[in-house]
């Protein structure tokens, strides 16, 4: 039986690790976690915040995920959106999901990310 999502993997182009670190660590506030040595040799980087785990893996024929995306639950969505904008990230609000506040952003290689917070007043 399934019990949890262990991690979400997103693709990235070769050589983008520094830009990914700047975004996931410095903009989103995640912590980089070490990759096992055999996997580290493949490039990419891993990040965590609480129970959220995102793995960025190098893909030679990289194309950003513009539709497929992780939905990341946040607390204090207004303040978090402000944090992202202050650090140069684009924030696009979307009111189409009942019971939630949410916005979209993109990482530096063009992968779509959704940030959402439950809001019972928005049913």
Q: What layout of secondary structure does this protein have?
A:
Layout: E1 8-12, H1 17-27, E2 31-33, H2 37-40, E3 45-49, E4 52-58, E5 71-73, H3 77-86, E6 92-93, E7 100-106, E8 112-118
Parallel strand pairs: 1-4, 5-8
Antiparallel strand pairs: 2-3, 3-4, 6-7, 7-8
Structural summary, described in words:
By secondary structure, the chain is an alpha/beta fold. The protein has a single domain (8-59, 68-122), classed as 2,3-Dihydroxybiphenyl 1,2-Dioxygenase, domain 1. The protein has helices at residues 17-27, 37-40, 77-86, and strands spanning 8-12, 31-33, 45-49, 52-58, 71-73, 92-93, 100-106, 112-118. The strands form two sheets. A four-stranded mixed sheet has the order 1-4-3-2, with helices on one face. Strands 5-8-7-6 form a four-stranded mixed sheet, with no helix packed on it. The longest helix has 11 residues, at 17-27. The mean pLDDT is 95.
Helix and strand element order = EHEHEEEHEEE
Portion of residues in helices? 10-25%
CATH C-level label: Alpha Beta
User: Between the first and last Cα atoms, what is the distance in angstroms?
Assistant: 32 Å
Q: What is the overall silhouette?
A: globular
Second rung of CATH, namely the architecture: Roll
Sketch the major β-sheet: 4 strands, mixed
Give the CATH H-level superfamily: 2,3-Dihydroxybiphenyl 1,2-Dioxygenase, domain 1
User: What is the residue-averaged pLDDT?
Assistant: 95
- Total count of domains: 1
What is the rounded Rg? 15 Å
Poorly predicted segments:
none
CATH-assigned fold name: 2,3-Dihydroxybiphenyl 1,2-Dioxygenase, domain 1
Secondary-structure-based class equals alpha/beta
**Beta-strand segment tally:** 8
Strand order of the largest sheet: 1-4-3-2
- How much of the residues is beta strand, in percent? 25-35%
Quickly count the helices: 3
